[in-house]
Amino acid sequence: MNCEQVKELLSEYVDGVLDPKTKARVDEHLSACKCCQDELASLKALVNELGSLESVAPPGDFLDQLHERMKQRSCFSRILRTLFVPMRLKIPLEFAGAAAMAILVFTLFYIQQDHYKGTQAPVDLKEERAAQKAASERWGEGLKDEAVKPRLAYRTATPEQPPAKKEPIELVLVMKRALPSETYAPGAAMEAAPAPKEKMRRSLAKKEAAPGAQLETDKRDDDPLPRLTGLVELVGGRVVSIEYGKASNRPEAIHAEIPAEHLNTFYNRLGELGELKPSPRSVTGKEKGLLSVRIRLLSPSR
Amino acid sequence: MNEDLKNPARSPREDAVLVRAFQGGDTAAFDELVLKHQHKLFNLCYRFLGDYQEANDSAQEAFIKVYRSLKGFRFESAFSTWLYRIAVNTVKNKLTSAEYRRRKKMVSLDNPASLEHSSPAMGMQDGAPSPLMELEKKERMRLIQEAINALPPEQKEVVALRDVEGLSYEEIVEITGLNPGTVKSRLARARLELRKRLRSVI
What value of ipTM does the predicted structure carry? Predict the structure, then answer.
């Protein structure tokens, strides 16, 4: 056995845990090797030194500190226990709670989002909504509606139809012949009536040969439009629209709004232009505001 | 199980009685066990960590672990062996914890002589040593502890258990879970290392 091998075994040798055979061989080597003897002495000294190290004592209140610490721990673990034990019961409960919270939060979030959309909607959508709202309110107020209907029916003078607020009063005006000359040619009124009429008829008949010029002539002579619009303006109303015939390109109807208080005057003046059909009902003083009137113009039968 | 290996100073029978009493609901039995083993356990922790406060922390931690699992103790080993195993694991966990290493680094930078001041109970047991001897002894102890501190943890473990605590190889095997050959070789290497470091002292 050489020094290296012995040195490796010295640790166990010191502790006395070598098997007797190996120990005997180490002893044999040691008796002859000064170097290994020194090594052994050094090792023994170290082991003695380590073994004789004074024991470091814990603090005097070690047990109290321990109790304090255990109390703190038990507080913490009690909280944990109340939260999670028994696991089988409380974990699903907590999970359910968390899920409920999540649903609540999402619901609130979506409601908020809808609200946001509502406030940010384009204007037309807003109006649509307002109209829907108004409609639903009308449905809700059935009684009030019932009270309104008869009044509207009276105003429109078409009781068989369900009255709508904007529905115009429909009238037909059968135009008188040669109106313009009568009204707008003061000089002519002085003359004997037949003569200029005959003259005009003749000239019309003449011009029928040249159809291109006919429209111009008719316009000049028969166009009731300026007179009608003048009349509307006279009674303080306004012309809403004028309908032209597709083929003839002549005015067929005029749609106007007339103040209710002047409607009777308007009818009277219309009567000067031609025959009104059906003969309109006179308006009572109760009605106010603008009334919509649509007058269809019919040429006199030739 | 290995009662024949136990030091006469420790009395496993009594440990077993106390453990059974605790398991029977006597919480005072635990206090008794603590008082009985606190010195050994604390010393082991101190040798391992080289810091009084850290040793105190680890020893208390180990006893708390013991308290928690004592109800389930099945006497498969001696109580003291089980206690040491818990303490060694606690201390090893502490050594490897990032928090401990960070703190250790700070201490060594701030106060390199902290070791000396952190062991107030040291050197109070001799009768009436001369101040010089006392000083020399303190210095020696400091150097030895520093040498132990410098060992890698696996060598520190076997040295602390064998040479400081005086446990048998079998006990060390049981506590650490290492095989006997590893314990022997680690101990030999640790001793060699310590001799190198303490050549001037010993």
Answer: 0.78
